[in-house]
């Protein structure tokens, strides 16, 4: 689901052709991810059919035609819909969560808190599971991995608590 969001966000910034969309997503994610053509172009075709984007053909002499995609009003609505459509399953995935957080300015306070609390519940379950496994005496390096995992999960939980506090304070300031 996050790939749909990333594609639409790039098109919303400015009309782009497929290769530009791919490169901008990779730039935004620090090349942590390769945008596969088998994901990108079917999504663009689906968005065009749904009316979320419009497509304009640019003819190029001696080269294949190029298509430039532009966001529509329905596409802007779809972005908000996708940001809000955060499920328990997606709460388990770091990148799904991080992309939603980066788009929090587009959604309501209630949905921000719902997403943050959903991710926090997942992390609490993960923390309990790691705590159970760390006493298995399975070797030094496994123990190191589990200790690192504990610190990473605890750190993210502290960050989420801070985001919850900021969300609550922002709401108070606007009243």
DSSP summary, beta strand count: 3
Low-confidence stretches: none
- Rg of Cα set: 20 Å
How many DSSP H or I helices?
8
- Following the backbone from N to C, one meets helices and strands in this order, namely HEHHEEHHHHH
Whole-number tally of structural domains? 2
Termini separation:
34 Å
Helix content: 55-70%
Structural class by secondary-structure content? mainly alpha
Largest sheet, spatial ordering of strands: 1-3-2
> Averaging pLDDT over every residue, what do you get?
90
Shape: elongated
How can the largest sheet be summarized? 3 strands, antiparallel
Strand percent estimate: 5-15%
Organism: Paenibacillus cisolokensis
Pfam family, one: Vir_act_alpha_C
Domain Transcription regulator PadR C-terminal: 96-165
Domain Transcription regulator PadR N-terminal: 7-79
